[in-house]
Amino acid sequence: MAHDHSHATGSRRRLAAVFVIVAAIFVFQVIGSIWTGSLALLVDTGHNSVDLIGIGIALFAATLVQKPPRGQKTWGFRRAEVLAAGAQATLLLGLGVYSLFEGIRRFLVPPEVPGPGLMIFGAVGLVGNIVSIGLLASSKEDSLNLKAAFLEVIADALGSVAVVLAALSIWLFDWNRADAVAALFIAALIVPRAFAIIRETGSILLEVAPRELDLVSVRAHIEGVDHVQEVHDLHVTRIDSNLPVLTAHVVLADECFYDGHAPRILGSLQECLAEHFEIAIEHSTFQFDRASDAAQESHTHS
Question: DSSP character for 38?
Fold first, then answer.
């Protein structure tokens, strides 16, 4: 337990360091966007601002997850991460759509952009992103939270690469349309990612079962446990992106309630869910029904 707490503390420290770096890049890029007038740098700055919010959410969630639920908040603030991610994705989508339209307009009528100045701001952003990638690389598989933050920084780095390439094209070849091309490239990175986040948060809020989980296989595994006759009212939802929850009514032979089998069956079901699937379901609730009672129920559903 002490090792896990130390590991979590180390992860939070790395996230905090990345947050500071990304915040510094954001401020620097805001200044650069105003000074150079570059659309690519402006879009990358907007992208960076949304990613800064995302990393802040990841840092906040990494802190909240250590706190036990209290009072009416039986799940704590886990669902707040989902709501914030949905809002973040909406902003990201708006930025992507704006950059697509503005990028096309500027491609047709390219403005003057100072290549050397753009190069400085793009290069500083890229260096900061590379440092952030190094900080998160060793811990990105520890949780979905850290993995999401790592992907945020990767996306930022790709945007910075596009800005640097645009600056080189303007500086060396006097091709001002490179700024619009870089902006369109960054938009192409942003829009699909925004849709993916919106789809994922929507599925969680609508309590859709995780797509990585085959419910037919789950049902088959449960019904394959000795003495289980049937499963109904099977539900799998997620409280957040990393916490699947299963509830089900499980019909047992009547004698299981009198010969001591029921507690052993419960242990077998929980072990089955935790070990046999791509997503480990460690939070499950089963209601055991007698076969004689289940036969009289008329409002069950599969």
Answer: -
The string of DSSP codes covering 111-122 is PP--HHHHHHHH
User: Distance from first CA to last CA of the chain, Å, rounded?
Assistant: 39
pLDDT tens figures, 52-64: 887 787 777 767 7
Q: Is the pLDDT of residue 214 over 90?
A: no
Instruction: Report CA torsion sign: 190, 192, 198, 200.
Output: negative
Instruction: Decide if 179 contacts 130 (C-beta within 8 A).
Output: no
pLDDT of residue 246: 93
The amino acid at 9? T
**What are the helix (H) ranges across 37-75?**
39-64
For 121-135, the pLDDT digits (tens) are 989 999 998 998 888
**Minimal CA–CA distance to 286: which of 253, 257, 262?**
262
Structural domains of the chain sorted by starting position, each given as residue range(s) with its CATH number in brackets:
2-205 (1.20.1510.10), 215-294 (3.30.70.1350)
